[in-house]
Amino acid sequence: MPAPHPATPPAPAPPAPLAGRPLTPVARLLRLCLHGLLAGLLVLAAGRAFAEAAPHAAWTAAACALLAAVYGAGVRAPAVHASARAGAVWLGALGAVWALLLVLSPDALWIAFPLYFLELHLLRLRWAVAAVALTACAAIGSFAAHSGTLRPGAFLGPLLGAAVAVATVLGYQALYRESEHRRRLIEELIATRAELAAAERAAGTTAERERLAREIHDTLAQGLSSIQLLLRAAERALPGGDPALAPALEHIGRARAAAQENLAEARRFVRALTPPDLERGSLAAALERLCAAAPQARFSLSGTPRALPTPYEVALLRIAQSALANVVRHAGAGHAEITLTFMDASVTLDVVDDGSGFDPAGAPRGDGGFGLPAMRARAESLGGLFTVESAPGQGTAVAVTLPLPAEAEPPAGGAATGPTDREVPR
User: Fold this and answer.
1) Taking the chain, what is the end-to-end CA distance rounded to the nearest angstrom?
2) At how many degrees (to 10) do helices 57-76 and 25-51 cross?
3) Of 70, 80, 268, 381, whose CA is between 20 and 30 Å from 252?
4) For the chain, which residues make up each domain, given as ranges?
5) Region Disordered: start and end of each range (predicted)?
């Protein structure tokens, strides 16, 4: 029998598929090639045994059939691919039948090549390399036993085949892992883009709600409140005892009532457009919930709380959210404190952290930056004062002070129009 020579082995079977994921067409094709190679080699061994009238031709054919049966049973058994122990048991059974076939037929040594790929596919790397080496030694020993001589080809064939199998399988597994990593990155990117789009839609909706609430409060509500005050002044200016002025006073009263009803309706619109964070309670409650979501943040309230116009509450809440977001993303702070302070003529929000700090003079002034321009614009739109104190390595303190609007004078003959009858500073 001629000495075996290195043969070009088939492509390896891919790593076991992820749970719940079907095989790709390429992986399915590679497995079919492996099945076909083993079947062809078994047919070759049995056919040559009968063609050459070997002494143990019938036993060789029976061993080939047994090996095919064991192989087919393992391929159909899900446990072989799911459990390393089950795979090792299956390989042991295949190895035992193959060892019997090696004794009966010299052509059985070629079956070592598909066995290489099975071992590399089912076993851990160190055990797989050891199994491949043992398989190569068995093939070399079978050739030496049947030929009675040792030639270089007897060693080179199985050893080179084993080396090519190991290199091919390891290379394919590396490509497979990289492909899976890229697939996961693409899935994360798609999910992140969807979340970003949803966040942008929600942010746009919230911004539009805030804009509408601010416009209604600063135009319609304030205009109706001014009309009501002017009508009350006109009512006071007219003598009430003159019968000739009674119709005029009656019309002024109706005008005041209509203005009051429309003012109440405008306020209902403003409340309906209030950000969701303020719908469930006061500004202090919203700030407390905001701090509860950040482990390093704490909220404190100072002074006697009082109701604020919706634009004030929205501005203070958004500034607190932006400042706390800066603390979490950029400052690396271990502790942050948000303080809401009510004073006689103003309300102050302070956000202080012990983080890395920065140079306020060198902070970007565009919309990107640290959000400082947006916070300053919110505060100044209500006539407030916005300050930032920070230095590298010394933490950051953000403070915004808004002057409290003066309460409107109660209308004649009735209750006060409520805390929202306030002129917003311009």
Assistant:
1) 104
2) 170
3) 268
4) 25-150, 281-405
5) 405-426
